[in-house]
Amino acid sequence: MRNLNEDNITQAVLARLVDMPDNRLKTIVVNLIQHLHAFARETKLTEEEWKQGIDFLTATGHKCTDTRQEFILLSDTIGLSQLVVAQNHQRSSNATEQTVFGPFHVPNSPLLPPRGADITNGAPGDPCFISARVMTTNGEPLPGAEVDVWQADSEGYYDVQDTQWSSDNMSLRARFITDESGTLSIRTVNPKNYPIPTDGTVGQMLEAMHRHPMRPAHIHFMVKKPGYDTLITHIFSDGDPYLDSDTVFGVRSNCIGRFLKHPAGKAPDGTKMEVPFHTITCDLVLEPVVES
Amino acid sequence: MRNLNEDNITQAVLARLVDMPDNRLKTIVVNLIQHLHAFARETKLTEEEWKQGIDFLTATGHKCTDTRQEFILLSDTIGLSQLVVAQNHQRSSNATEQTVFGPFHVPNSPLLPPRGADITNGAPGDPCFISARVMTTNGEPLPGAEVDVWQADSEGYYDVQDTQWSSDNMSLRARFITDESGTLSIRTVNPKNYPIPTDGTVGQMLEAMHRHPMRPAHIHFMVKKPGYDTLITHIFSDGDPYLDSDTVFGVRSNCIGRFLKHPAGKAPDGTKMEVPFHTITCDLVLEPVVES
User: B161: distance to nearest CA of chain A, Å?
Assistant: First the structure.
């Protein structure tokens, strides 16, 4: 083609892909190019706006390091991550819903006993006792499931975010293997709502959108058991003011739990607490994998 | 919203933008989010594919430096740049068409006299004599137009690409002000087709697409004159094997010129050439700006 303009260039670009050998990748690329071209045409994007887009993407890339992923944050804050998660993990009515993975998981956290462990490891915050049951959609307990737990402290920081209180970046995170009862009974700190990092392009974008950067208080869970769809979810704190406006669109109805506050006294693990503490009880219901 | 899934998340994200103050930016962002979500839904993008996309964007960002713009290269090679250029510079029938700016322009190149200048400045290549006329759509010459010229050498490299032959990165580029005749008569080297840089993510993408990275031989022009739409274009070399498959989709029908080869002898500027040389004659026809 020697006379490409806004009306014929999309077909010209797609015609150039006839020899692309990977059919799935071709489907993805063809669809993406069609949508990007339609976007530019429908908005009649100017060259100055196009340049601002190039600059935004470049600055987003430059913000990414081994411990910071600004493109994931961008995908999260425009709801793309949650869309992809949701469409790949459809649930029967009572299985726990999937939500976004987030950027703060660390593989190979300490493997601890499922009853009585304390994952606080120096983190500040009110004590909180989690009692979680891993089960099937029929209500049967699931022994031998690996439960990976991680969360932020009372200020909303994860251990890996240059906190002063974590000497080994293995605080407020651990893994457990469920016993015959499928139950996990552990101690941690009460989670709090917090802002996602705002010192990059995503922070600038949220400001331009007049949106807040907050996430409602939550604890992350990843549950793996052969024969079941790996469950990546959060338990959100009922009553949190940001439940209806989570900046990464991660809240699902059946992932909200009640963090109950108790006065000083006897904790669920038998400890005599000198300060008030919280308890949270939740079910983690796994979806069986259907062989296709 | 507390129960976001692939069917309702797009509306939930857009609802979050109600307070966005900049209406034009809002139009752009709303349209882009709708298209990106539609892309993910229509392709039923998997989490692994989403992650590959994140990694691709991150690596593209990391490739960008002060002298390398991989995101522009990406936009160019999927035809997005040319689409944006075309829809912002519609031409009456005989005005010279606009094409992509490319990443190799340098502002404030040397200002030289429009008759008889030599911009070679150490660059290798066969001699080439350009005769260009800047004119209106009525065929009247345009004096006082600034003509910015830049091009690659006989190997396809621009001076700024770490070449050995350019001591000051101001070779094969210069600016001129047209005189009463609107004519430019200068000496340079004959351009050659060349590959865009392939050592980054765009190179990987082209390989996955089974596409070549070649651009047909061309010389860049930018012509500025008050009252006229600034013309950013190339003159492509007629007969080049890549005219129909320019990897950045920049070829326009009326931007193709004939680079004629001559045996050693008298050049257009009166010089006696000991070696064969080329000549190219072209018109640069400016579109008047219509006040709206």
Answer: 20
